[in-house]
Amino acid sequence: MDHMIELIDVYKKLGLTQVLAGLDLHVRRGETMVIIGRSGIGKSITLKHIVGLMRPDSGKIIVNGTNVAAADHKALLKLRSKMGVLFQSGALIHWMTVAENVALPLRELGGYDEKQISATVREKLDLVELSGAGNLTPDKISGGMQKRAALARAIVRNPEIILYDEPTTGLDPVIAHAINELILNIQKKLGVTSVVVTHDMNTAYYVADRIAMLHVGKITQIGTPEEIKNTKDPVVRQFIEGAISGPLANNDTPEAVASD
Amino acid sequence: MADKGPVAIIGGGILAGVRGAGHDLIILLRSASYVGSFPSRGREILRQMYITGAASLPVTFLVALFTGMVLALQTGIELIRWGIQEEIGTIVSASMTREMGPIWTGIILAARVGSGMAAEIGTMRVSEEIDALEVMSIDPARFLVMPRLIALAIMAPILTVFADLVGVVGGAIVGYHQIGVPYSVYFRKGLEALEIKDIYSGLIKSVIFAIIIVTVGCGQGMKASGGAEGVGNATRNTVVISMILIIAFNYFVTSITQWIT
């Protein structure tokens, strides 16, 4: 099987908290993998490991053949040039307009003239349906528009891998659905490998080729959306149904794991 | 935590301080290594020059004016007793250019600009904007710190000269109205007292203060974590640490320039 992203036996402790405890995850080239799990369980931290913003205490993280966990600065730069990340908050540079934000990766890395840059920016803003908002700063647009602008920035260099951190959190259902559509659309148009971190099951079912459940520092279940919907695993069942009682008690957060 | 002895606590504190200073120094050196590529950040440098420099003029004006005025008043009252009150021009211009101008400008900039940098960059850190830069292969030291370093290193000496001038004029007003020294005498004495080494030592100080403020402000901002509280801590630490460093470095630069000449 041709894997684009592999996390092998990854451990990470933050302070006294063992966040990742032997995490294994293999993402196939061209697939959309959705990681679900409770808030604070380490989903975003897993993404930060894939992009090299965090290094594991032990274990391997192989992205497109490069071991991110041991990569030097140059190798990391090369790898990141093929990656786009949609951050939970959007993370648009606050004093720049939407168009300047989208142009930023092209402008800063050089090799493009202004004509190419403005054509690419226009194309990507069209794709996320923000053509009219290019001249606005992030504080002048809604949360949903910020997410879409950030998505345009994430795909401006035509990445091979896109990582989405809670793409629909904090958005109303209509806009959340529009973002889900965009994720599918980008997947179709660019043929990328995607990892989506979310606790929104609508997103998970809608965009995923496979869904992985992160629980107490490990992937405890993995399968297609159908398999996950029909699973008998009590942890996954409780999570997808949002039941109050069940094995996912309030003491299942990483903090509690650390003190076990 | 409770079972740690005092030695472990003090040792841990020192280690954390050294590690933090090392982190800030690395940021300074990295951003200094990008100074050559300043044209690519020209617009941001101009924006920072406005924020740090031009917008600091009103507060610098007021602080310098009253400093010059109180210097003239205090020394004037004393000098009248000896009948040498026309010397206040000498005293005010020497104190303003040697010490008061640079140090007050440094403290104003630490409070106004350093805290602003820590808050802005700290907010960028907690809202993932700095992570986003790193993921886009953009070094925050080049993108954020270098323009601030250049802008403040240009604006701090200009503000210092402005503070020197305003302070001397403030002294002249008090000298004329409260001490009875004519303007012509005051300014003649003031000019006579000016030495070129006082002016350049003040300018060297202001550039060093600018480097301190940007290093501490940006370093604290980059290290911020944990939302609003983290940004608040970064801002407070910036003002406290930069003020202490400014006052300490002021002494050392004065000592060195006196020793050289």
Short description:
With 260 residues, chain A is of the alpha/beta class. Chain A has helices spanning 43-50, 73-80, 98-109, 114-127, 143-154, 173-190, 201-207, 225-229, 234-241, 254-259; strands spanning 3-14, 17-28, 32-36, 58-63, 66-67, 83-86, 161-165, 193-197, 210-215, 218-223. Chain A is globular.
Provide structural commentary.
Helix content of chain A is 38%, strand content 24%. Chain A contains ten helices and ten strands. Chain A has helices at residues 43-50, 73-80, 98-109, 114-127, 143-154, 173-190, 201-207, 225-229, 234-241, 254-259; strands spanning 3-14, 17-28, 32-36, 58-63, 66-67, 83-86, 161-165, 193-197, 210-215, 218-223. In chain A, strands 6-7-8-3-9-10 form a six-stranded mixed beta sheet, sandwiched between helices. The longest helix of chain A is centred in the C-terminal third of the chain and has 18 residues, at 173-190. Chain A is globular, with a radius of gyration of 18 Å. The two termini of chain A are 37 Å apart. Chain B is elongated, with a radius of gyration of 21 Å. Chain B has nine helices and no strands. Chain B has helices at residues 6-33, 42-52, 57-82, 88-126, 129-135, 140-179, 183-193, 196-223, 227-260. Chain B is an all-alpha fold and 261 residues long.
Would you spell out the secondary-structure blueprint of this structure?
The complex is a heterodimer of chains A (260) and B (261).
Chain A: E1 3-14, E2 17-28, E3 32-36, H1 43-50, E4 58-63, E5 66-67, H2 73-80, E6 83-86, H3 98-109, H4 114-127, H5 143-154, E7 161-165, H6 173-190, E8 193-197, H7 201-207, E9 210-215, E10 218-223, H8 225-229, H9 234-241, H10 254-259
Chain B: H1 6-33, H2 42-52, H3 57-82, H4 88-126, H5 129-135, H6 140-179, H7 183-193, H8 196-223, H9 227-260
